[in-house]
Amino acid sequence: MALSNSPLAQRRTSSSSRSSTNGKKTKAQLERERRATLRRIRETSRILAQTQQQKQASIGQLNALKEKLNVQQGVIKNISSELKYIESDVQQTETQVQRTRQSLEQLKAEYARLIYASSKTANSYNRIMFLFAAESFNQFMLRLRYIRQYSEVRRAQAAQISNTQQLLSQQLTGLTEKKQEKSSLLSTQLNENRNLITLKTQQDQVVTKLSRQEEGLRQELAERQQAVSRLDNLIAERVREEIARAARVAAARAAARAAANRERAANAPSRSPGATSRSSSSEAEPEPARTDRVTLTPETAVLSSSFAENRGRLLWPVSRGFISQPFGRHPHPVLKNVMVENRGIDIQTSAGEPARAVFDGKVLTVASIAGMNNIVMIQHGEYFTVYAKLRSVSVSEGQQVKMRQPIGTVYTSSDGTTELQFQVWRNSANLNPQNWIGHK
């Protein structure tokens, strides 16, 4: 009885409860991550299946395989983490079972001693003789209280043994469930490892096939570089035009304000000549607009600031897919010693996927470029987002668009690859879109 009510036992129970709660919380997080990863695998599998409809291997197929491999490795890593927590839970539960068994044995031993002692005064005659053998009334009352307490202790001890047995049964059931869960996860991990090996084999086969198409790949790369150059020229031209246009508008507004001020000064009561001269001179010479960036109005300044504040949290330009080619300079996926320069990021997605505006803004340009298909360029103050490789466009130049609004449909190539080219600019500076879009 003393053991189960002791502070040590209470601390052990409390510690076990906290440990179990923390374990469940972490395990729940891992399970959520695993569900999200499995969803990514389903998306990538759908994209991969579309690229595999064509008999000839393609870069898009290789990129989809690489992404699926990467996600598959994440699944296996997640399962390994879950297994560690389950193993920890199993060990803790086994320790609790052992302690509960020890406590139960001690309770049973104490109860046996009570029963043995009680057997010596089992009949009513012995209890009555024990009471009336008291030398005083006070001693009589003490002996009566002792008999009552002795009976209560026996009942409490029996109840405590029953409760401990129930606790032990629950712990053993929980231990069995955890071991079954561990066994199931081990089986899942084994299957996922087999899937990983299969994917690696498929990737090696695609790389081998593509290596035999070196001449075609080099021609494809050269055509892409020409298309990128044409797109760069278009973006640079549109940015220069917008900077010049905004500068002209700002200059016209400044001139209009200066003329209005001069007219007010001329109609105002007579003042000292020096003051009038200084005022007119100051208003007649507004600060010249800069030619290296867009001159912002109060409204576009707010939009530009809001866009900048959402760095790292911008919407993805498609609702599903993966980054098939990152920003900047990186090795070609097949050709050796060949580097590829990317002004934005390529996002591979499903056929028929709509492209959408990542932020509020105004459509600055809608154009077509060989190798990049249809282009949409949206202005967000001094920031610009570019959406290339569109099959169709559903917006027009000068149109105001809202975040998440569809602007067109992503183009699917003859080899089954559906891929969007997405870029972010600040005036004439090319930025890395991966630093701007949020996590899917």
UniProtKB/TrEMBL annotation:
Gene3D superfamilies: 6.10.250.3150, Glucose Permease (Domain IIA). One of its GO terms (molecular function) is metalloendopeptidase activity. Residues 342-433 form the M23ase beta-sheet core domain. The keyword Cell cycle does not apply. Residues 1-33, 260-298 are annotated as: Disordered. It comes from Hymenobacter jejuensis. Signal peptide: none annotated. Keywords: Coiled coil, Signal. Residues 11-21, 266-283 have a biased composition (Low complexity). InterPro entries: Cell_wall_metabolism_enzyme, Dup_hybrid_motif, M23ase_b-sheet_dom. Residues 207-237 form a coiled coil. Transmembrane segments: none annotated. This is Peptidase M23. The keyword Signal applies.
